[in-house]
Amino acid sequence: MEKNLQIRKFGLIGKNISYSFSRHYFTNKFQDLKLKNHQYVNFDLQAIDNFLKINLEEVSGFNVTIPYKEKIFQFLTEVDNVAKEIGAVNTIKITNNNQLIGYNTDYYGFRESLNPLLKPHHTKALVLGTGGASKAILYVLKELNITYLVVSRSPKDGQISYKDISEKVINDYTLIINSTPLGTYPDIDKCPNIPYNYLSDKHLLFDVIYNPEKSTFLKKGEQKGATIINGLKMLELQAEKAWEIWNK
């Protein structure tokens, strides 16, 4: 059955997402574009299986956030090659005959917000965290030929733990990316446990967090002269890329 397109509904799939950047962003966008028949809602799912309860005939597309960027794969008809390689989906287009096609636009948002700040000496990156966001980040670092080292609380082969981050590691890896939610509002005093005292003006710190605007991680970097950027531009860019996908 074809969709009833009198109202074009989009939504965010996630868990405990009342803070939702996406809903705020797209609601404002629809108002600015005078798209009165467009609507954006949160689908706050306590378990991924609840996805099956959503009436897909009423929806044109989804964004996907923590903790479902990997778990959503089981419900998709098709997955774009880039999203497949990354191993995480954050955008779903629903076709007229209810085919669900998965994409990843996080990598685009990260790449385009990081690129203008990169200097020739940013050849090695320390990636803090191993969740869905880090997968897109690693994809971009590979694409940019930046060597990376992943830091995890439970390191697997090829990864290190936080206690392994020495002065030498900090000196070698001048791009440091926090892909964890540590420091997000309301827990704004928290930050990844790294030796900040070894940071310098050669470092570039990227935090996927955007609320607060300047996380403790970024503040500690700024105090040492590092260049800092939060995740807001990344989110805006990935949202615009999702909008492009839904409308193509």
TrEMBL record:
Domain of life per record: Bacteria
Residue ranges constituting the Shikimate dehydrogenase substrate binding N-terminal domain according to the UniProt record: 12-92
Pfam families membership: Shikimate_dh_N (PF08501)
Record key words, sorted: Amino-acid biosynthesis, Aromatic amino acid biosynthesis, Oxidoreductase
Pathway field: Metabolic intermediate biosynthesis; chorismate biosynthesis; chorismate from D-erythrose 4-phosphate and phosphoenolpyruvate: step 4/7
Coiled coil spans: none
Protein name as catalogued: Shikimate dehydrogenase
